[in-house]
Amino acid sequence: MPHSRHVVVVGAGALGLCTAVNLIERGARVTVLEARSIASGSSGRSVGVIGTQFADPFQIMLRKHALRQFRRWETLGLRFNHIGYLRLARTEAQMARFETSVRLRADAGFRSRVYSADQLTELAPHLDSTGLAGGLFGPDDGFVDPHQLCTMLTEMLRSEGGEIRQFCKLEGCIHAPGGYRLETSKGDLRCDAVVNAAGAWASPVAAILGQVLNVYPERHEAIAILLDRPLGYIMPMVMDLVEGEGTGLNFRHDTDRQLIAEVHKSSSTHPEDPDDYNDQCDERSKVHLAELLLERLPGLSGARLGRGWAGLYPTSADHLPYVGPVDPDEPSLVTAAGAGGYGIQLAPVIGQIAADWVVHGAPVSAPETAELSPARLNRPQWLDH
Q1: 14 domain residue, yes or no
Q2: Cα three-residue angle 206-212-215, rounded to 5 degrees
């Protein structure tokens, strides 16, 4: 690809910025358009968890690519809080999947260990293991601050000559000789290629680009758990969900006197409007979350609910991200969207693959990710999910 080729990335969240950085490292000239401000969408409302506890080789492979970049960025100043990630099992079948995960993750270079139910308090002394069979623990996993991640990526992009236009909304797209003319709220912009990394707004952005994309903005809530005194240890990330089974409760250390908790499962039955949704935690959800926490952490005396908020998971029908051209006849219109609740942890690999599609027309640095191509959009999706 000639170094002068100009690529516009729509969206300045984690996916868009990771894509932009990967593109500029490949020699592209990059402009990022953001309708609001950097990390103002789903990225800024994420709890920032980075985990690798899967028994699916494909999911582990994606995280192997992502962790490679996270480790590099960590050497450049990204704060990665390695508090560990504990996924809970309720059945022996789930424990068997965890044993498989340990083997697969070891092959990928990830450390992990299966704990029996009576060993779980070694990791989280306040945890009640009633009804549990055990857990899978990855000591190197943890969380990042999404705002710090996006700020760091922004600085990297600008230091290499990239541009970010905030409060600049995409309003139209017209084919021009050799590329596109984008109409924005701050004037027209010509480019050779476009990447749709608009998160919860990916579907309306696709419509502006003349395409159809099914990304379902799914509302999820999180809340701070305030402690009257420090726990005396670091609470790892704890997740009660294995391939759809479990309550979906998850919680983790945030500060000495605060945990962050959310329910990964969603009760939403319809797509949210990203321009008009309730971005606060409602009372019914607070009660439900409190009940789940009392069941799993009954000895956490003096704890109380603090600030709550809601964000959107930009989700696909099969819960895999879309990375690549929606229309094979428009290879210069690339999509990077639909990562659901895993947007932060998958952003580095999604950005890597999206940049490959723009530069090489295929995921050459990770050919095994070709199945993430939006070509699977060719069948109706929400009817069978």
Answers
A1: yes
A2: 75
Q: Are residues 305 and 372 in the same domain?
A: no
Same structural domain for residues 224 and 131?
Answer: yes
> 275 is in which domain, residue-wise?
81-141+218-315
What are the angstrom distances between the C-alpha of 91 and each of 11, 87, 94, 96, 97? 41, 13, 5, 9, 10
CA 343, 346, 348, 353 dihedral sign is negative
How does pLDDT run across 227-257, given as a tens digit for each residue? 999 999 999 999 999 988 899 999 999 999 9
How many Å apart are CA 130 and CA 296, to the nearest integer? 8
**Tens-place pLDDT, residues 17-42:** 999 999 999 999 999 999 999 999 99
Its pTM surpasses 0.85: yes
How far CA 59 is from CA of 64, 110, 269, 376, in Å, comes to 9, 13, 26, 18
Q: Give the pair of three-digit tokens for residue 30.
A: 């990059």
How long a stretch of residues is the chain? 385
What is the rounded CA–CA span in Å between residue 179 and residue 192?
Answer: 4
Domain C-terminal end among 263, 288, 315: 315
